[in-house]
Amino acid sequence: MSDQMIQDNTEITYFIDESGNTGDLILGGETLSYGGQPYFGLGCLGIKDLTQFEADISALKLKHRIQSNDLKSTKIYKSKPAFILDLVKLIANDKTPFFIELVEKKFFVATT
Question: What pLDDT does 29 receive?
Fold first, then answer.
């Protein structure tokens, strides 16, 4: 067995997005409803072949008749569930690295 390290110099482009950042205690008053957004979510995809990924997304948008440039889950989750499934299949089949974090705000502690 060799002590040589295999290096992968593939460049990866990361896409990060959050959801649930607008609902805080101020909006919810004394009810601790967090403005109707009790959770904070963070997601990240690491794309190795950006050109191919963009082409794949364009093909999926065409297939599912999505015209918007911005893929907002609130707009497509209920109306286009097949698109979501195809997107998950694309990520899984390409073995795209991903990260998902979901935090219930009442258990979240923020420090500076």
Answer: 57
Amino acid at 50: L
84 is in which domain, residue-wise?
Answer: 13-106
Q: Could you tell me which of 34, 36, 38, 37 has the C-alpha nearest to residue 24?
A: 34
Condensed to tens digits (0 to 9), the pLDDT of residues 20-75 reads: 776 555 555 566 667 777 888 999 999 999 999 999 999 999 999 999 888 877 78
Which has more pLDDT, 25 or 81?
A: 81
Give pTM, 2 decimals: 0.71
> In angstroms, what CA-CA distances link 35 with 21, 26, 54, 106, 111?
10, 8, 35, 12, 21
Domain count, the chain: 1
Residue 43 lies in a domain: yes
Q: Which residues of 49-72 are buried (b: 16+ CB within 10 A; e: fewer)?
A: eeeebeebeeebbeebebeeeebe
